Amino acid sequence: MKAVVAHSAGDVRVAEVPDPVAGDGEVLVAMEWGGICGSDISYWRHGGTGTAVLRHPMVLGHEVAGRIAAVGPGVSGLEVGDAVTAHPAELVGDPALPERIAGRSNLHSHVRYFGSAAFEPHTDGGFSQYRAVPAEQIRPLPGGVSTLHGALAEPLGVALHAVNRAGELRGRTVLVNGCGPIGALVVAAAKRRGAVVIASDLAATSLGIAERMGADETRDLSSGQELPTDADLSFEASGVPAAIGPVLRATARGGAVVQVGNLPGDPAPAALGDLVTRELTWIGSYRFVDEITAALELMRDGLDVGPLITHTFGLEAVEEALGTAADRATGSSKVMLRLDGCTAA
């Protein structure tokens, strides 16, 4: 079968790899769609992301959906032909957690994630024609949710986890800074929770998508518009250290900032004085627990992730797809790969 394999910085290939087989407790998924994430771009550009560094070739991709092609021994409740996505996280070792983080499986010390080089051996992702997946990681798609949209359940789960970290939102004024795919999904999730949402970004195209996802107001920072000064709660979704200071200043005294944009693993300057003088709470948000299931329920109930999808490419055009996703000048938001060999939509 064909798969998207990262070898090193600047070296991503569509390669022939052995066909997988569904083992005990697994199903074989014929993948149809995959969404390109910032970590996929980082492996392509830099040979790693954060502290995870490629040491040998690895299949990319953790935002995927397809249909079950085979069911392994010991699996019940799943049938060939079912449309599914996958929870990309697998806990390794003792699943017990300290009481202070009980239930927060995303904080387990050893989590293998689709398309991650965090551990040896690396964990292959799902940018391939087929992948064997443990049945407990499978999430069936509800009726009416296509595999194209189902592949976005994972990033929507990330956004929902960030919103859950923030607490009650109904009636609160919320700033979402950075309207790439995750930021735009945070906009949608916050609106679903009853917030009044102000979205800010440097790109007018991203702000247009945020508006379509439900933003009540947008601020184009590239045209001289400024952030508010009294947001009850802010979500920093750009992951740019230089943005942290302005977002802290935009948050009302005694408010909170949820950091959902992934920050660099290396030292970086950031203006943090307002964290103290405004008595702000700075909250980290990492991946998700099982909000991917809630994401599918929201799609079933009418949340449309379609506005995020700006480009689709066939599997063989993965380098062009990565380049498009990495370059904001292209107007890209979520770039999708057709993984089954069919022509991209």
UniProtKB/TrEMBL annotation:
Its cofactor is Zn(2+). It holds the Pfam family ADH_N. Gene3D superfamilies: Medium-chain alcohol dehydrogenases, catalytic domain (3.90.180.10), NAD(P)-binding Rossmann-like Domain (3.40.50.720). Residues 23-142 form the Alcohol dehydrogenase-like N-terminal domain. It comes from the Bacteria. Keywords: Metal-binding, Oxidoreductase, Zinc. Residues 181-299 form the Alcohol dehydrogenase-like C-terminal domain. The keyword Metal-binding applies. Belongs to the zinc-containing alcohol dehydrogenase family. This is L-idonate 5-dehydrogenase.
